[in-house]
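User: Sequence recovery, please. Input:
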């Protein structure tokens, strides 16, 4: 799951010089993930993983890192 998220984010939303050096807990918001990027990311996740992520849960704690994104997706995928 994280590999696909990493590929999408680094190819489509955020530029980092060394993506392989970016850790699963590193801050995507500080790296440049903005509100438009978050909306594109949510659409990607919903299409790719067949989950619905509630608008009321779009907050930094859920999108700040790859680990946070994975936890958020799994909470709804297993619901």
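Assistant: Recovered sequence (79 residues):
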């Amino acid at each position: 799951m994280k590999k696909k998220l990493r590929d999408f984010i680094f190819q489509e939303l955020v530029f980092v010089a060394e993506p392989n050096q970016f850790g699963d807990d590193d801050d995507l918001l500080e790296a440049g993930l903005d509100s438009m990027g978050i909306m594109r990311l949510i659409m990607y996740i919903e299409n790719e993983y067949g989950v619905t992520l509630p608008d009321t849960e779009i907050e930094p704690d859920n999108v700040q890192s790859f680990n946070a994104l994975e936890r958020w997706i799994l909470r709804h995928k297993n619901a």
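The chain has a mean pLDDT of 94.
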